[in-house]
Design goal:
Blueprint: E1 18-24, H1 29-41, E2 44-51, E3 58-65, E4 73-78, H2 84-96, E5 99-111, E6 114-125, E7 129-131, E8 137-145, H3 179-182, H4 187-190, E9 197-200, H5 209-214, E10 216-220, E11 227-234, E12 243-247, H6 249-255, E13 262-267
Parallel strand pairs: 8-12, 9-11
Antiparallel strand pairs: 1-3, 2-3, 4-6, 5-6, 7-8, 8-13, 9-12, 10-11, 10-13
């Protein structure tokens, strides 16, 4: 089955300060990884790496200035034509290795003078995630809240990675406010802040989109034992924040959590 990299999110606020860097097709994945790590050593963060749509001999790296140190990126080749269960098993193995998938992409490498395409997972080391006995992913770390009319940290037209306007019917009728109620057209502002929803850094594979939309995540405040269930609506927070999840204001309040408190998040097995 084909695994397609989603188009870069036009509502990503990082896009305002990011830039693109072209890299000629390299001799090997190891060499391409070294180039990415060199860029990051100079104070940039790689947001995505993919083959150019305009020039068949180039890879394109999107970079943003990095304000804090984050784990170095590593690249792992993904075998072709994996089944859903094989993709799930591969993601589990990556998690067990203490790695977090940042993105999936197709890149170009050269072999015997010929340029060829391979698929990769870009990963960073994390101590936050483990695989639970039932196959789900357990993530523990700092959180913040997001979403709703009062969240000025998102643009007025900013969307959600897992919810397009045409997909709002997948959620209860009061899950989103009207444009008039929110005072803004973007779903990140229109989402009802009293509903229970989250954003976390799920591996950005198109195959996971539908399972993630249906998934019910379980959250716990380890300090008081409070638990709640929530829907997954967005990707985030950015790695450089040092946080593992963003929660709706209503969910954070119900769990007794405030920004930078620790939360335990369990996402069910998706594939």
């Amino acid at each position: 089955m084909a695994l397609n990299l989603p188009d870069p999110d036009p509502d990503d606020p990082a896009g305002d300060t990011s830039n693109l860097s072209n890299v000629a097709a390299t001799n090997s994945l190891v060499e391409l990884e070294r180039i990415v790590q060199q860029r990051e050593a100079l104070g940039a963060e790689c947001l995505f790496l993919t083959k150019s749509s305009n020039d068949p001999t180039l890879n394109v790296i999107r970079l943003i200035v990095r304000r804090v140190a984050i784990p170095v990126m590593t690249l792992q080749q993904v075998p072709q034509n994996l089944s859903s269960s094989e993709v799930g098993a591969l993601l589990d193995r990556i998690t067990v290795q203490g790695l977090e998938v940042v993105f999936y992409s197709d890149v170009l490498v050269t072999e015997a003078g010929q340029t060829g395409e391979i698929s990769i997972f870009a990963c960073r080391t994390t101590s936050a995630a483990t695989v639970s006995p039932n196959g789900g992913t357990v993530i523990k770390g700092k959180m913040a809240d997001f979403g709703g009319p009062k969240d000025t940290g998102v643009r007025t037209n900013e969307g959600l990675a897992l919810v397009k306007p045409s997909e709002m019917s997948l959620y209860p009728s009061d899950f989103f406010l009207t444009v008039a109620q929110a005072g803004a057209p973007g779903l990140a502002r229109r989402i009802n802040p009293q509903k229970f929803y989250i954003a976390y850094r799920w591996p950005q594979l198109s195959i996971l989109r539908s399972p993630l939309q249906r998934a019910i995540a379980q959250l716990e405040n380890p300090s008081n034992g409070a638990t709640q269930a929530a829907r997954i609506v967005d990707w985030g927070p950015a790695t450089r924040t040092g946080r593992v999840a963003d929660l709706s204001p209503g969910l954070a309040s119900a769990l007794g959590l405030r920004t930078d408190d620790v939360v335990r998040l369990t996402v069910p097995k998706l594939l």
